[in-house]
Amino acid sequence: MEWITVQNCPLCGASSSQLFDQRTFRAYPVENRLCTRCGLVYQSPRLSDQALEAFYAAEYRLAYQGSAGPTRKDLYVQEQRAGVLADFLRRWLPEPAQPNTVLDIGCSSGLLLERLSKDFSLDGVGVEPGEAYREYARQRGLMVVAALHDLNQHRFGLVSMIHVLEHLPDPVAYLQNLRQEHPVESGLLLVEVPNLYAHDSFEIAHLTSFSGRTLTQLLKKAGFSVLALRQHGAPRSKVLPLYLTALARSVAAPDAEVKICPETEVRLKRRLGLLRRRLWERLFPGIAWLPLPEEESRF
What we know:
- This protein has helices at about 50-60, 60-65, 70-90, 110-120, 130-140, 170-180, 210-220, 265-285, 285-290; strands spanning about 5, 15-25, 30-35, 40-45, 45, 100-105, 125, 145, 155-160, 185-195, 210, 225-230, 245-250.
- It is an alpha/beta fold.
- It has one domain: 3-Layer(aba) Sandwich (Rossmann fold), CATH 3.40.50.150.
- Strand 2 and strand 3 form a beta hairpin.
- The chain is globular, with a radius of gyration of 18 Å.
């Protein structure tokens, strides 16, 4: 596999960083660095773009869950997560901006796409590079393509990217390109990522680890303003803030130069967050981690 060093921070572009964490994740070396300017944590060195493409095509699902196709446990988590995200949208979706169509990037088995299409009467399209998952979604009657450039439709009322941003080599550029190539009619973007201050985070496939502030800053730089941001553990925990879910709206005329407000005390916040997690796990195991239909596994 080919590895590359990330020369510049994916958020602010600074070239100065410090070692933040170093470990082995399922036989892969994983090193994360802390940007000394803005406080973003990102993986470097990381797999090259070509190596990442090969990894997702042949190894990703096998390395993470031992199966190329959907497992019972995976489908259960996705179904529960879809319900949580639908409730989040019902609470925060602006009334004048009710979308007619949804594009779910990284739609996996299609359960979220199916839920959003049903609950909000949306015409849905999914993007899923994994062949087995894409075929599973298609068998459920969903329209799912392998890549964005395969789409004939170019405008959508809502774009969802659930546990996708952390996998992208350049999330700012990706979102900016999305705005240009597939403009969102109502400007709405739904994203969810692991929370650096509670989730294990540091995996071979996670190229960026977000806090609430760095996620907000990244969306702003890409031309979006955050309407709602939630820290939570659903559907895996009742008390651990494992995830960050945000609803954002495209800005009509984004600033050419966005001032980044740095995240501070990142090491301390990470340490305290994981300490709190261990305490909850020890004192209240029944609600710290909710049961799965098969053996316990932490997503």
